[in-house]
């Protein structure tokens, strides 16, 4: 697991909600709104929304087996060189994380195993911590371009 | 205006209704739209109509896990009863899609393969199209800009 070298926090946000499908849209809109303070392209914003949607959907679908029985936590932290989004549940947990992250792997025959594919292709890093019976935490990391010096200040 | 009529082959009635609705929605503040969306009911998110053995389905809004159930039951009610074996999915009103939406589409694709039918996607916005491409679904299901060329492909 990579240590964040960049300790200086610029902004953060936490939210907690019940594992119901309607909250997937809520969470991706909140994360995108938080990210809107950055100098992001429309594409980046869209990718962030998809990655968040995937992680939160997984908490509800797999972690809590599609039941409105548990809590999902999201924390977003902005550092000068990166944005970190952590999505956590206290659901069933993942037995084999490496396997779960393989493209097209799913424990549900109706699903495609695309969630982690999207998270990995749209974010710079995806870190998963999970314990069976305890829950899962997924950290999505987006590196931010260094802030350019303002033209007028030269 | 004249082109809008001929291109979509709309009836005057449909044209007036659609534009009246557009105007109405525009007049609503964002906040009220949100409240109406929360109350639900006002928005039809999956609509379908049959044309021969082709089912035309229009999905509107965010195609995530809140919509998959409705999409599946609507489409399957036609496929499972043998009423349709060709499927045209109009995505032009979809503003967001994730793996849940893609999974629901792919599930119908598999079903239609069993029926020896065909399936096409129509009119995704550029953002939605990017997601379709990243998923690779574009390599197995044809994506068309407009309904006419999609229907031509269905034959
Ligand atoms: N929060 C979670 N709790 C428990 N299991 C999880 C969690 N997230 C992912 N998994 C496991 O990892 C597998 C792969 O996840 P991924 O999102 O890539 O695919 P999927 O959810 O099965 O399918 P799709 O995302 O295409 O709908 C899941 O099938 C599930 O077994
Ligand atoms: Mg998933």
Q: What can you tell me about this protein's structure?
A:
The complex is a heterodimer of chains A (154) and B (155). By secondary structure, chain A is α+β, with helices and mostly antiparallel strands. Chain A contains four helices and five strands, in the order E-H-H-E-E-H-H-E-E. Helices cover 31% and strands 28% of the residues of chain A. In chain A, strand 2 (71-79) and strand 3 (82-89) form a beta hairpin. Chain A starts with 8 loop residues before the first strand and ends in an 11-residue tail after the last strand. Helices cover 51% and strands 23% of the residues of chain B. In chain B, helix 4 (68-79) runs parallel beside helix 5. Chain B is globular. Chain B has a single domain (4-154), classed as Transcription Regulator spoIIAA, CATH 3.30.750. Classes of the chains: A alpha+beta (154), B alpha/beta (155). The interface between A and B is medium-sized, with 23 and 17 residues. The structure holds adenosine-5'-triphosphate and magnesium ion (MG). Magnesium ion binds at residues 54, 57-58, 115 of chain A.
- What's the structural domain tally of chain A? 1
Order of helices and strands of chain B: HHHEEHEHEHEH
> What is the number of helices of chain B?
7
- The fraction of residues in strands of chain A falls at 25-35%
The amount of helix of chain A comes to 25-40%
- Average pLDDT of chain B, rounded to a whole number, is 82
CATH fold topology of chain A: Heat Shock Protein 90
Total tally of structural domains of chain B: 1
Query: Runs of chain B with pLDDT <50, length 5+?
Result: 1-13, 23-36
What form of chain A results from the Cα inertia axes?
globular
From the structure above, extract its key features.
heterodimer; A: 154 residues; alpha+beta; Heat Shock Protein 90; 5-stranded antiparallel sheet; 4 helices; globular; B: 155 residues; alpha/beta; Transcription Regulator spoIIAA; 5-stranded mixed sheet; disordered N terminus; binds adenosine-5'-triphosphate; binds magnesium ion
